[in-house]
């Protein structure tokens, strides 16, 4: 088994916990990844922090690109250290929290080549998926799994 080439630098990823405005139980949106590292796993909307971009700007840009919605009340939630040795990658992932700017909005899958679609999940559902107690067969993308395992007070 050949290992992928090592990336030369730690990259910064941003994941966004976007609250579902139609949920009364604090659900957040996640989608199944396609065509990239972590394919087949459940991940939050997000991506790479671009040069000179603030964390808030990155969160807003990525959610707009991936879900077609505007977000507001963007705040910092947590950070994880995510080495992915088998994939030759290492990330520091910033988790931001946000709400729909339009409470009547509905996310769309703007990047079907990268995501199978968006569903919303409670924190408890994400914990069950992470622990393997969920019958769906889903697994969490590494940074999201680490976030769930670390159970940060600001998010839980």
UniProtKB/TrEMBL annotation:
Gene Ontology molecular function: any one: 8-oxo-7,8-dihydrodeoxyguanosine triphosphate pyrophosphatase activity
Record domain Nudix hydrolase: where: 9-147
Xref: Pfam families: NUDIX
Gene Ontology annotations for the cellular component aspect, listed alphabetically: cytosol
PROSITE patterns: NUDIX, NUDIX_BOX
The entry's keywords: Hydrolase
SUPFAM superfamilies assigned to the protein according to its UniProt record, in alphabetical order: Nudix
PANTHER family, per the entry: 8-OXO-DGTP DIPHOSPHATES NUDT15, NUCLEOTIDE TRIPHOSPHATE DIPHOSPHATASE NUDT15
Name of protein: Nudix hydrolase domain-containing protein
């Amino acid at each position: 088994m050949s290992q992928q080439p090592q990336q030369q630098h730690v990259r910064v990823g941003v994941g966004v916990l976007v609250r579902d405005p139609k949920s009364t139980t604090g659900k957040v949106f996640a989608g199944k990844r396609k065509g990239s590292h972590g394919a087949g796993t459940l991940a939050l909307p997000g991506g790479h922090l671009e040069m000179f971009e603030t964390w808030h700007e990155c969160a807003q840009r990525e959610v707009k690109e991936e879900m077609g919605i505007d977000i507001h009340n963007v705040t910092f939630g947590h950070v994880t250290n995510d080495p992915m040795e088998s994939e030759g990658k290492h990330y520091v992932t910033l988790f931001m929290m946000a709400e729909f700017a339009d409470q009547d909005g509905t996310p769309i899958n703007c990047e079907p080549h990268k995501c199978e679609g968006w569903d919303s999940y409670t924190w408890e559902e994400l914990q069950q998926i992470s622990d393997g107690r969920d019958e769906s067969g889903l697994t969490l993308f590494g940074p999201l799994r680490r976030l769930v395992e670390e159970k940060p007070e600001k998010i839980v």
